[in-house]
Records
---
Amino acid sequence: MNFFGKRPLIVYALLCLFISCKNNEKPVSTVKEEMTAATYKEAYRPQFHFSPPQNWMNDPNGLVYHQGIYHLFYQYYPEDSKWGPMHWGHATSEDLVHWEQKPIALFPDEHGYIFSGSAVVDSANSAGFGTIENPPLVAIFTYHDPDGEKAKKKDFQTQGIAYSLDNGDTWVKYEGNPVIGNEGIKDFRDPKVFWYEQDQKWVMALVAGDHLQLWGSADLKSWEKLSEFGHKKGAHGGVWECPDLFKLKVTGSELEKWVLLISINPGAPNGGSGTQYFVGDFDGQRFTTDQEDAKWIDYGTDNYAGVTYNNIPDGERIFIGWMSNWNYAQATPTETWRSAMTLPRTLSLQKIGTGYTLFNYPVAQLNQLVGASEKKDKTLEIGAKDTIPFDHLNQAEIKFKTTSKDFVLSLKNTKGEELVLTITSDQKLFLLDRIVSGKTDFKETFANTIQQMPVDQLPEGEYEVRALIDRSSVEVFLNKGQYVMTAQVFPNEHYQLLEIENTGAAALEITKLTVNAVSKIW
Ligand code: FRU
């Protein structure tokens, strides 16, 4: 091709460079390189969980389903594997199991970094960004102005919006940003917006330091404050972050309740970051609950800032959390990237005793990755141990049923490292011990205690025990998600031996035991 033939390309390249620099964006080529650099073979790289191709990731953002695509945006710093000026990274999936990495969706601009938020499908074109025929995706996020923060001002977090007319591939920020200013609340962030059918309006859940604020809007651009909740409710060991508010049917009845998720950091039951929930009612203005005690979606140390998908048909509620903890997130022993997401989990609500319990359990789509080994029944006499060698325990599912609440499961390697899971009927506790699980000394708070979960409401009869273990994580689900623990682990060699010990006062009956490899998704 002669010079003249190439000229339009050169002009186009210069134009792209100009536009991207103007928007404070990186040239498109750099972004593409980042998207392809990962091998997903690095030590500790999750094989069936989502992790970013490179560099730092925290909260899931903008979870929305549109035209057959599940979007996963996330807090992303593309220049380093530690937290920095926040962008929204982007990935998509057709089945919540396999993910395609996409170019960065939102870059910082003159209003600040792009902190956490949500995305909606504006089907009625209420904001006027698209058409009814091609309804836009609208992202609602927090602007964090680092200069204001440095100057010790209190009004440096505001809320902004952006839209996409091509199902999330490219985004345009609204020129009227910010759409909600700040009257002097230091921590004022993480808008979760949803459509409230009954009043035909948008509702935003937003956190303001130690409480929740609800805002309403007809067009996503102009907002009015509706109410506040939580000054004196629930856990307050740290600042409130990443709220979510949604309706769920109570299993086995026609009753509908509203669930409010609130992440807090610090103040979680096993230290650092964690997510509490409230079950109550919402009348379009106010959220109310008679729940007194704090309830937790997950007692493990590594499930934070989790929120749910908007716009999934049939009332299904799917949750994804960030599989880390601010106590040590920036120090974990991975090199080219940092952090992964939890498995996507289906939420459901059950009345247990006098209150409601929020169950969370991996989406059924995940089963396609799990092998189909023969189901075995086992009896272990008092004090007996059984060992099951399995090379792939760091990419596996362990599943069985039992009525016992007295046993120990240990996952071991040949270096003397082990991850120990214990249930004891005496104390009505489930324990997760990663003290000698592998690399732990990168941060004192990582493995200085045994993690505990009260399991006093487990059924009397048979219940399921299921653990999903990836290269650097374990997720344990008791009774299909009634009690859950998620934790990171960094063994120096894969665990290769599963040991089951009967610590009860009667024979341990285990039925339908399977240990299966889980296929990789990358
Ligand atoms: C939660 C959080 C959010 C904030 C984001 C910044 O992990 O602190 O409150 O929007 O991370 O990256």
---
Amino acid sequence: MSEFSEWFHNILEEAQIIDTRYPIKGMHVWQPQGFKIRKYALKLLRELLDEDHEEVLFPLLIPEDELAKEAIHVKGFEEEVYWVTHGGLTPLNKKLALRPTSETAMYPMFNLWVRSHTDLPMKLYQIVNTFRYETKHTRPLIRVREITTFKEAHTIHVDYEGAQKQVENAIELYSNFFDYLGIPFVVTRRPDWDKFPGADYTMAFDTLMPDGKTLQIGTVHNLGQTFAHTFDITYETAEGEHEHVYQTCYGLSDRVIASIIGIHGDSSGLVLPPSVAPYQVVIVPVLFKKGAQTVLDFCNHLKNMLKDNGIRVHLDDRDLRAGKKYYEWEMRGVPLRLEIGLRDIENKKIVLLRRDTMDKETFDYQEETIITDLNKILNGITQNLKTMAWEKFNSDIRPATSLQDALDILKEDKGIVSFDWCGDESCGREIEEIVKVDILGVSEEVHEGKCINCGSPAKSRALLAKTY
Ligand code: PR8
């Protein structure tokens, strides 16, 4: 197990994020702390999606004939589908699949729902669990067989331009989401051999975990008219003609939480961005016999004030050594800790520890401004986490001018290697063969330069990395 892997497993357990002891491989239990982080992350995403999408909820089971209708799609998923074959003791006359994703659950209904051009665009999403019988090594939150938080959006448009514009909108939406969480990423267009089964093309978000491997944390697919033809989803134009629609879909998973934990965490444990922290502030009273009640009263008053102003706060008045409490809240990643003793109250001071920097400072306490002051610090933490993560990320993307160069970088420094590429599939597969890692995708067009492998004119800048 790599050092990061070990750290990751330990922190999931110690911080009570998820329990991996559930007796089915790849399926885990969300514990209260993890569930709260998940809840706040979902809240952020819902706020973004609800601007112009509507939430729906489809059944978990998909009839075999619907799943099988789209040949390319089903081929891509056939080895990963879990099947329900019986109802009690009775064999079902039609097998039912546990959704690996919901195109084939939703699109037969879209066939019924879409009537006129005035119904379009239609932008729907759902947040559900999906099941994939992954054959690669499973890892908690990173590669699971029950994706417990699959956020899938599906959109329908009258023309190709509408779908293409939606791909751009979705990329912007997900970029904003990852920005709120301070997760750095690259967006690339996946090589054709690695696109979503049934898509015209796939755009993917990748981040870097501390062990130097990239993690695909989200994808946006332009489905063109493939599924529209398969499920005969048509609309009536203003002129009374019937046309097939154009579609997109995009999704995120539990990997969002894995990347928050992996990217911001440190040797003392979790470091949570305030937006998803179960507690944003923890107050630890420093109690001695003298004045203990005064300190507790003050801390309670402060707690209530923060709470009334929308800050998630906890007063830790357990009868434990302060050091033990500090260790615990640091490990759990609480962004801000306030330590308050009698002398501090008398001097109108509080001691404040920022989890992102571990800097401790004595802070002037003023009742009138304390909320604004703390919110300012919390925002500063959000910004700082993002800046630190992006700095690290950018320094881990290195250009290579030859395949040997790429090999050396991947061996020594890990991370992502950028290079000029002709875009040809056989050349790309050859590169993957030689460097033994995957081409993530292409990030931008280039107008000069030569392909790192075959030497013909390069079409684009591409990225290589060891992936999860
Ligand atoms: C779609 N259909 O399904 P996608 N464990 C954790 N995360 C995973 C796993 C897994 N086993 N498999 C995939 N992901 C489209 C879009 C509706 C929504 C994550 O797309 O198959 C990856 O981050 O690409 C992936 O980018 C995302 O789910 C969407 O899955």
